[in-house]
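Record type: monomer structure entry
Structure origin: computed from sequence
Chain ID: A
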Amino acid sequence: MSEGRYNIPKQYKVDKGMPLDALFQKIDNLKCRRIFEAGIESVEWSYHLVDKEGVKDMKSLVREQGLSVFEVNLKRKIDPDLLTDVFANLLQRPVLMVYLCDGELSMGTYIPVGKSSRTCSTDFYPYDADRLIELIDYDADAGKTTQQIHRRIYAMIFQQKRMIMIEKAFECLNRDNERESFAYEFSLENLDRIRADADFVQSQLRVV
């Protein structure tokens, strides 16, 4: 059974807070370090998914190869691509990052495969804190290795990123169309008509 805000079995639960000072000191770029120090409230190693069965304690669990899930609580939004890129360099392991800020959520993941290492992140989007964050697809992931599950999650995040980008681009298009329509309605071409209408209204008021 899952436990907490994720649909991950509790046998993989770590719940280990990360020491921010020690973590951020490893960031070489000073500007980036200041961004992280100012914007990140906490980093928690929440889960560690492994292929080995019957791991009985957390210390033994985290020594196994697997997929680590980290939850990052933010004081203010930081670009998710930057977050994932920096955490990938800091942690140097297969990770799934969950970023939470003011009722919105973003996810990023890192697959280390030598020169072909890959990262992918979604933009922030609203989420319901009363619902589980579903990272495991119990039908699709049945009988799969942790590595295969990670690749499936990567594909899911990539698709979410694409859909969010499309939705935001479409919203911008609608706003641009509304501005163009407004500009047309109040353009110089219509100014004479608007003045004529105003003069007509004033003349009617004077008659009354």
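Annotation 1: The chain has a mean pLDDT of 86.
Annotation 2: Helices lie at 20-24, 30-39, 58-63, 80-91, 146-185, 191-207.
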